[in-house]
Amino acid sequence: MWKIFSRDWKNTATNWVALILILGLAVLPSLYAWFNIKASWDPYSQTDQLPVAVVNEDQGAVVRDKDIDVGQELVDNLKDEESFDWQFTDRDEAMDKLEYGDYYAVIVIPETFSEHLGTVVEGNPEKSEVQYYVNEKINAIAPKITEKGATVLVDQITSQFISEVNGTVAELFNDLGLELENDLPDIKRFEEYIFKLEENLPEIYQLISDAYDDSQDASSVINNVQGLIPQAEQAAGEGLSTIDETTAFIDDAEQRLNELSPQVKEDLNAAQQTAEDVNAFLKEARSVDVNVESIGEIRNQINSRTSQSLEEIAAVEELLQQVKEQQQTSQANEENQEDNGEEGNEENTPQPSPQIPEETIDQAIADVQAIEDALTAIQEDSSQIGDRLSEAQENIDQTLSSLEEKSGETADQIDAFLKEYNENIEPQVLAEIDKAQSTLANARSILVDVQSTVPEVERILNSTEGNIAEGQDILEYMMNEYPYVNQKVNEMADRIRDIQGETDINEIIELLKNDPSAEENFFEEPVTLSKNALFPIENYGTGMTPFYTVLSLWVGALLLVSLLSTDPVNLQEYRSYEQYFGKLATFVSIGFLQTLVVTLGNVFLLDIGVAEVVPFVLFGLLISFVFMTLVFTLVSVLGDVGKAGAIVMLVLQIAGSGGTYPVDLLPEFFQTIHPFLPFSYAIDLMREAVGGIVPARVKTDLLFLGIFGGVFLLIGIFLKGPLHNRTRQVKAKSRESGLFH
């Protein structure tokens, strides 16, 4: 075994062509790994090189008197966004270039995009859609990348929309909280009002009921008053007639007083003059001798003058009696008017006309009668002169003296009455007549106003009757609705008590009050992803390094068995197991060179971030040994059939090992064969070195790789000899065709 191994390396070292080939075989597999790793180094960071067309057909919309154009806003945002090579164009050009492969995808914003978004505030919301067109023929991965980009774009629009809506809602809640805080005293007052209303509702109902009864009484009163309106109109008419008659009577009395007053004054002056003449005559008579003839003459003169005075005084008395009678008649008329006023409208009854005090008139009449009595006494005494002439001369002087005294008193009385008449009686009578005329004029004006007001009063009463009827309907409705209102108020009061027991309004206010900007930012991204990588991988290329490294080691083994002979020279000199192990050692040593080149190149040339460099190299050497054992055993034992088997295993392992996609995403067949593939454990072992070692997983992977290596070593040991001759025969037969070497 050692002889075969040493001779192979000695021959290689002395043959420069062989050495170059071996070195090429050592480096060639690493190129396969390096190129693939570098090509997939970080493709998702290069998506800004993928041309994606954006077609904005949005026409905008008006939402609550505000113009919005979400499509244009989206375009403006994409111009600053570098996740793709955004191309802004029209639909026709975009679809043409998509068809010819110039664009990987086309995103169309329809013309109703903003309009549909705005329907969210109209009670009948319609979903907006973004149209996505992709040419999947161009590349297998690009459509998935662009689709993810379109999805992210839609999510961004959705997130922004939700942010705006919830920001608005948060602002409304904040305003509501502030308003509730400002209105808290009013809310407390409202609660108190509800409780007070609940307490006072029975009293309110009683007031409504009383008001309803009062309205019925008012209707009855109005009906009665309406019945008295004709009487009031009649009384007003009769009052006007009475006033007109009284006014005419007073005017007539004034006229007669004006006519008689000069005559009264003249008669009083004449009576006074007569009294003075009698007095002078008596004085003269006393101074002369009296005889029967002279006494008769004196008596005749006295009788003549006193008779004249009596006539004049009688005229004055008659005038005073007329004034008294007129006043009594006027007073009787006013009493009749008062009676009519009580039956009609008392407020419009004319006030009584001013009256001359009856005592004044009676006193004037008494004074006139006293003057008449005095004049009559003079006349009687003068008639005694002739009768007493025969009695005695001495009595004449006494009688004349008595006549003279009475005549003087009568003159004084007439003088006093004349003065009283001029200063008091006549002015007072005239003044009272003027007052009576003024009062009657005012009374007439009032009655005229009453007559003109009666229709308006009647209209007001009719209107009031209608209003009262309407008020009765309202009161009756309120009485009928009272049970419902009472029930609802009690329910509201009970609900307020329950809320007070369950919730503190101050807590509600604090919940509503917020920072709208913070709320908007929260709802824009309510959940953030906090990435915690247990085993951080720098990029996609680093993540694919285990797969491409393991794949390059299997490819390297295939290259060796394809170019190098698995049988030593002079087979007859060695036993089958010696042949097997001798050549296997050569192949494994070259495989180790391949492993060192690819693993160290990954670390130092590509600068792959390997967490554990030494285990990465050691694990690579172990995997190379196992793979080389498998491939070499297949070819050494089975020949060309083994080569085909190694290639088939390669194909199955690429698909079923989970090197590119998670095993759970693979079809059921590949999930079934996954545990039986060396790649599954080799890739997992290299991942431990790249990302970070979990000892339990490393032990599992080493165990299964050891099992694979041990099984194929046993196959090589025990089947190399029995199958070798048959394999050589098959190989010789295939060469006869001239197609195989």
UniProtKB/TrEMBL annotation:
SUPFAM superfamilies: Methyl-accepting chemotaxis protein (MCP) signaling domain. Residues 20-151, 382-718 form the ABC-2 type transporter transmembrane domain. Residues 335-346 have a biased composition (Acidic residues). One of its GO terms (cellular component) is membrane. Residues 323-357 are annotated as: Disordered. One of its GO terms (molecular function) is ABC-type transporter activity. It is found in: Membrane. NCBIfam families: pip_yhgE_Cterm, pip_yhgE_Nterm. This is YhgE/Pip domain-containing protein. It comes from Halobacillus litoralis.
